[in-house]
Amino acid sequence: MNTSPTLPKIGHQRDWVWRGWQTRYAFSRPENLNNQQPPVLFLHGFGGSIDHWRKNFDVFGQEHTVYALDLVGFGASRKPQTEYKISLWVEQIHDFWQTFVGEPMIIVGNSIGSLVALVAAATYPEMAKSLVMVSLFDPSAEQEAIPKFLQPVLNFTRLAIIRPTLLKSLFYLVRRPGVAKKWAKFAYAKDEAIDQQLMNIFLTPSQDQEAANAFPAILRGMLSIYFAPNIRRFLPRMKLPMLLIWGHLDKIIPRSNVQTLVRLNPNIKFVEIPDAGHCAHDETPAEVNKLIQEWLVDNQKNVIPGYSGMPVKLF
Predict the structure, then answer these.
(1) Helix, strand or coil for residue 258?
(2) What is the tens place of the pLDDT at every residue in 179-234?
(3) Which of 182, 170, 176, 166 is nearest to 203 (CA)?
(4) 8 Å CB contact between 50 and 70
(5) Which of 59, 46, 47 is nearest to 10 (CA)?
(6) What is residue 243's predicted lDDT score, i.e. its pLDDT?
(7) Which residues, listed in sequence order, are joined to residue 133 by a DSSP beta bridge?
(8) b (16+ CB within 10 A) / e for 247-280
């Protein structure tokens, strides 16, 4: 369990053993347990952890039972050298939901966490009441651009060239504070948002003994064209309420990708944050928190039928 004073204290933190791996989660319950508000689960992005929700967790904890989970390979969870795909984290979330939640919940994700949330809601529709996706990571743009018969060849060539030893060298480079801060400036629009606590959130997990081997495994997984199912193929059939938030100054997710996804489903509400980058929930938290809370109230007034029509198995 993480008790470092250099990191924010997010809720009540516990360890949960999943598939033999220790994982970390946080939870908090509101004082009024009879308010009947649905629970909320926060899912971090690449290089993040439950601590990255430092400016959101307590706000939603006033009215909701809230959870945040360190995905396997990140934060204070175990970082095994295994095959990393979206399906791994989807199964982790589903098992967590079965163990601790057990009712439809609001899933809030950032970047890869948004992608995990979306695929999880499609695979296990009974889990999700609604989705909030902050800068949704969309690998299907590449999947759509490459003919299907060429994808295995491209995948083999790419992974053959990018060896684990090369990625491990990259890991030792990017965990240097000076280099890590440059990456943070790429993800954030405003320098003042990059404080020492944020750098600790990003850098502390990289000191774990397993991190040097997990980092190459995760990156190789992300570089695979089979990292995630093609979300553009099933997104049009999803009927639950979805809020897609994008920072206008996001240098990682192109606006054209976001616009394409919005056009696929009328149940997606798209909101652009003018002065935010890739992590709008942390960079402009007051605006994002208010936006999500107002959207959730609107959802209660205008209930959308539950999801249906999804293939039983995505992977």
Answers:
(1) helix
(2) 999 999 999 999 999 999 999 999 999 999 999 999 999 999 998 889 999 999 99
(3) 176
(4) yes
(5) 59
(6) 98
(7) 109, 244
(8) bebbeebeeeebebbbebbebbbeeebeebbbbb
Identify which of 9, 89, 23, 48 has the alpha carbon closest to the alpha carbon of residue 205.
Answer: 48
Q: Which residue has the higher pLDDT, 172 or 307?
A: 172
Superfamily of domain 12-301: Alpha/Beta hydrolase fold, catalytic domain (3.40.50.1820)
Q: Which two tokens stand for residue 296?
A: 């959730």
Confidence category of residue 156, pLDDT binned at 50, 70, 90 = low
Rounded distance between C-alpha atoms, residue 228 and residue 71, angstroms: 16
Q: Which of 211, 139, 143 is nearest to 172 (CA)?
A: 211
Sequence spans of domains, the chain = 12-301
Q: What are residue 260's phi and psi, to 5 degrees?
A: -60, -45
Phi, psi for residue 236 in degrees, rounded to 5: -60, -20
Name the least confident of 9-18, 27-36, 91-100.
27-36
Compute CA distances 32 → 21, 67, 158, 168, whole Å. Answer: 34, 17, 53, 48
- Residue 224 vs residues 2, 83, 158: alpha-carbon distances, Å: 31, 11, 8
Side-chain-side CA neighbours of 227 within 13 Å: the count stands at: 22
- pLDDT tens digit sequence for 285-306: 999 999 999 999 998 765 544 4
Q: How many helices (H) and strands (E) does the chain have?
A: 13, 8
Give dist(CA 227, CA 214) in Å, integer.
Answer: 16
Question: What pLDDT, on a 0 to 100 scale, did the predictor assign at position 279?
Answer: 97
